[in-house]
From TrEMBL:
<dbReference type="InterPro" id="IPR004220">
    <property type="entry name" value="5-COMe_2-OHmuconate_Isoase"/>
</dbReference>
<protein>
    <submittedName>
        <fullName>5-carboxymethyl-2-hydroxymuconate Delta-isomerase</fullName>
    </submittedName>
</protein>
<dbReference type="InterPro" id="IPR014347">
    <property type="entry name" value="Tautomerase/MIF_sf"/>
</dbReference>
<dbReference type="Pfam" id="PF02962">
    <property type="entry name" value="CHMI"/>
</dbReference>
Length: 120
């Protein structure tokens, strides 16, 4: 915990600094949600394609990114909202929005009580 997933469209690959974003994101999660630094894990998943409205898939005038943060239950709605706002701000800082419209979203969800992890 936390389990962080960043899904993003191909248009972002040339403008997204994943490493610096992850470092800043982990620092925010530690500060806002009281997570331990060594517990922060982020998985980046670049999509093969993305569709926006009625545009052809080859048109990359729009970039889409969605960040999901899975945390153990117990954080207040205020804490979750602060965290999603921080994520959106970090995306603005770490995506060089040169030639596309950025559509960014984030959510914090409680991990299911069945959540378990293995390190070995």
């Amino acid at each position: 915990m936390p389990q962080i997933t960043v899904d993003y469209s191909p248009a972002m690959s040339r403008a997204f600094d994943e490493e610096e974003f992850a470092k800043a994101l982990h620092a925010s999660v530690v500060e806002i949600a009281a997570a331990k630094p060594e517990a922060c894990k982020t998985l980046f998943r670049k999509a093969d394609s993305a569709a926006y409205a009625y545009q052809d898939l080859a048109v990359e005038e729009h970039a889409i990114v969605h960040v999901t943060l899975g945390l153990l239950a117990g954080r207040s709605d205020e804490t979750k909202a602060r965290l999603t706002e921080a994520v959106l701000e970090l995306l603005r800082e770490h995506v060089e929005n040169e030639d596309f419209v950025l559509h960014a979203s984030a959510e914090v969800r409680d991990l299911d009580p069945s959540y378990r992890k293995y390190e070995g």
